[in-house]
Fold this sequence. Notes:
By secondary structure, this protein is of the alpha/beta class. The protein contains ten helices and eleven strands.
Amino acid sequence: xxxxxxxxxxxxxxxxxxxxxxxxxxxxxxxxxxxxxxxxxxxxxxxxxxxxxxxxxxxxxxxxxxxxxxxxxxxxxxxxxxxxxxxxxxxxxxxxxxxxxxxxxxxxxxxxxxxxxxxxxxxxxxxxxxxxxxxxxxxxxxxxxxxxxxxxxxxxxxxxxxxxxxxxxxxxxxxxxxxxxxxxxxxxxxxxxxxxxxxxxxxxxxxxxxxxxxxxxxxxxxxxxxxxxxxxxxxxxxxxxxxxxxxxxxxxxxxxxxxxxxxxxxxxxxxxxxxxxxxxxxxxxxxxxxxxxxxxxxxxxxxxxxxxxxxx
Length: 312
């Protein structure tokens, strides 16, 4: 059954944790918020740290990322990095935008990678800040390889990927014992901007109960048709989460057979994470932001188990 799209800040009563975070951290971080006592690594001149900034909410930044922000001379950041995070950098740090968004003018990947090389060779302490995790559909591997090939020392700092953290903020567990023992992460487009021809949708459909699709809005008609042709039911639950973990987060609950029309009807636009599978049903009981706003769960047993959740 199709459930209308919801938005975190649609009403005054809706919980908006992100806005509260921004209000508290609208100024550069200072020594009044010290890192815990630990042997934190030092970002040395001529090094590049490739760091995941998480899916959006600044609170999901790791302590290693915060440590990097406090040391970097230059921060090269992506389009999906929440700009409030940049407020936590040193005031004298230079911020360079290097965002790439599908269908919009953006820097070429080669130019971004070589710019990192040039900055490091100039003796700068460079932080490459990427949305989500740098090694999950983020071109982090390409940039790191370029740096190593040019003799630039690197450090990799993982981040929370939107395919996990974004779905969690929507109340959707990417794995659930009563639903799936596997999950597959795929990208909705390749280097050419088209749906990856190398993906075997039949094998993916048969082999994974839950499928998480990054950057799939543009080609959702082809993707949904491929999954249905491969044997997935047209009534299978699907969720589309846009601007995940931010104050502008929207969640569309729909089905595989109606997703294309529902996306158009509700004006859903990238960036978005798409989740296909019965774990989407768990949002009816685990939409924690709605619960925090005083709303009752829509169904405390959405999988129809007929027994308490704690029972084996």
